Known about the structure:
CATH class of the largest domain: Mainly Beta
Strand content: 15-25%
CATH topology of the largest domain: Jelly Rolls
Radius of gyration: 22 Å
CATH architecture of the largest domain: Sandwich
Order of helices and strands: EHEEEEEEEEEEHEHHHHHHHHHH
Strand order of the largest sheet: 1-3-4-11-6-9-12
Largest sheet: 7 strands, antiparallel
Distance between the termini: 39 Å
Number of domains: 2
Shape: globular
Amino acid sequence: MPSLTFPDFEAYSNAVNGIDGEMRVTGRSDAAWVLSTLEIGDIGVLHGMDGASVTYRGALHAARFGVYLSLPGSDTELEGEQVGDDGYIWMAPRQEMQGFTRVPARFLGVDLAEARVLGQAVRMGLDTQALYRTTHVRSNPQAVAEVVALTQRAFDVHAENPEAFAEPAAQQAFAAQITTAVLQCRPLPVCPSLAASRRGRPPLPRKEIVRRGIDHIQRSLRGEVPFSDIPFAVGASQRSLNRAFGDAFGMAPRQFYVVERLHAIRSALRSARPGDTVTGICARFGVWDLGRMAALYSRLFNILPAQELSRALAAQAGVPVVARRR
């Protein structure tokens, strides 16, 4: 949805779904109160700009987890701690949170379905009980920046193409990416049972890491698992994965995945049927950022996805295809 500007803080606060709370203005309110929200399947993303300094207290609805990220230029304290670029506030269902801002704040929020979070946490070997405590999660700025970038990119993509997240596969792909990015910031210990199973285990041979990695990548292309689960599915660290794929293919697992996905999309475009669209075909492979995908596709195959589709449909219809000048 487009950004909405509110005349006062009450209307602004009431427009935030999924949370019951109270906001109190503590400073002069000269700036606009602006809010953008986007629902992507069972994930909600939010971008807010306060019009004044405030105090706030509130709690998420049942069966929802939440993340609050402070953007540059803000001066925000939640749960008694300053929120900077090295962390975020993790909000558990039905647990009240308190905080305040010293200046009009800018922030991002992510609203996550409980079932999705728990499923991903189990796959990552995290302690799920710790998720039910509202707390300040500190991580490295790069990991937090990944969450910010994904959230902001979702707004950009939706603005460019309002139908970008219409396909369930695109919704699932974004949800898996943002949930994994959020949980990877949490410095939680591995579950004791999982740690015990891993203790003393000999390192995997390089060929086995690659074999398992390729198998996981192919399953992710079929929509069976999220690509981001690869370290847990393979049973190797990201560093070991990078080294094994680098030795085998000269690229990291993510690059290998991107190349495989582009080739899968190319095959699907070339075998398209009337009524197929680039958006629909790409959504089958979990692509929601069509602009970036098209740029990568063009760079690799020297043709845009839309042109590839047009050629395929024209060939099926028996329409002569004019060779494109290079």
